[in-house]
């Protein structure tokens, strides 16, 4: 049996080259996206590749951040094109079954300073075909800090409030995707992570399931 020795878990499927599906993991600030990606890295076989976040690549490279509308548009155009290329490379060369995207191009709508139509027009893309590039979308909801807006702690609750606004803008941006699942914030983060990991697992071909289901189940909180 062929064993593909990439990733932290060996894969026993003989088909070492899979056609690559793009699956997006997105969500509002503080929703735990990074932690879920880290868990995915450990749980799944090497046929799940995790793509770097475009915004991080852009800012690590020193892209200018102007606090103006023109500056915000420049950043979003930059992110859009980097994201497209990172995804394209995964589809062309990774042979992974799932390329897990740390946000997708549609997220840019949530940060665009003008109307959505202007985003599509500026980037010269059709919204429907852009959405259809992604096989599935998983949205992790930003939790409500202390159950919601808390006047006792203005500084902290203000940022929690803003995080929820961004969460809602990202929800709106992806609203027309036919295969989106929303993982609501629960009091237990692990419960939320397990739900997201199961959703990712459901996108994998059976040959790549391996022990991932077992590993995810063992991480699940016991009721
Ligand atoms: Zn595999
Ligand atoms: Zn496989």
Would you mind describing this structure in some detail?
The N terminus is likely disordered. The longest helix has 26 residues. This protein is of the alpha/beta class. The chain is built from 8 helices and 5 strands. Helix 2 crosses helix 3 and helix 7 packs antiparallel against helix 8. The chain has one domain: Rossmann fold. The protein starts with 20 loop residues before the first strand and ends with a helix. It has a 5-stranded parallel beta sheet, with helices on both faces. Helix 6 links the parallel strand 4 and strand 5. The structure holds zinc ion (2 copies). One zinc ion binds next to loops. The site of one zinc ion has 9 residues, from loops.
Please specify the SSE layout and strand pairing.
Elements: E1 21-27, H1 33-43, E2 48-50, H2 54-60, H3 69-94, E3 98-102, H4 116-123, H5 127-132, E4 136-140, H6 154-173, E5 180-183, H7 189-201, H8 212-219
Parallel strand pairs: 1-3, 1-4, 2-3, 4-5
What is the structure about, briefly put?
The chain has 223 residues and is an alpha/beta fold.
Shape-level CATH architecture = 3-Layer(aba) Sandwich
Average of per-residue pLDDT values: 88
As a whole number of angstroms, the C-alpha radius of gyration is 18 Å
Give the termini distance in whole angstroms.
Answer: 37 Å
So, the CATH homologous superfamily?
P-loop containing nucleotide triphosphate hydrolases
- Morphology call: globular
Beta-strand share of residues = 5-15%
Largest sheet: 5 strands, parallel
What is the count of β-strands?
5
């Amino acid at each position: 049996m062929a064993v593909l020795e990439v990733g932290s878990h060996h894969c026993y499927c003989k088909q070492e080259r899979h056609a690559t599906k793009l699956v997006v993991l997105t969500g509002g600030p503080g929703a735990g996206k990074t932690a879920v990606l880290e868990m995915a890295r450990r749980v799944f076989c090497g046929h799940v590749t995790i793509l770097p976040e475009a915004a991080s690549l852009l800012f690590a490279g020193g892209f200018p951040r102007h606090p103006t509308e023109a500056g915000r548009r420049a950043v979003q155009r930059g992110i859009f094109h980097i994201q497209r290329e990172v995804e394209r490379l995964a589809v062309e060369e990774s042979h992974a079954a799932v390329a897990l995207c740390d946000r997708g191009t549609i997220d840019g709508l949530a940060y665009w300073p003008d109307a959505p139509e202007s985003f599509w027009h500026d980037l010269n893309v059709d919204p429907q075909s852009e959405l259809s590039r992604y096989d599935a979308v998983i949205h992790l909801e930003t939790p409500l800090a202390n159950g919601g807006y808390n006047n006792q702690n203005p500084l902290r609750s203000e940022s929690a409030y803003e995080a929820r606004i961004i969460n809602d803008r990202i929800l709106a941006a992806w609203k027309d995707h036919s295969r989106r699942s929303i993982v609501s914030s629960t009091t237990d983060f692990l419960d939320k992570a397990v739900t997201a990991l199961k959703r990712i697992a459901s996108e994998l071909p059976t040959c790549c399931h391996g022990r991932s289901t077992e590993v995810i189940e063992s991480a699940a909180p016991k009721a």
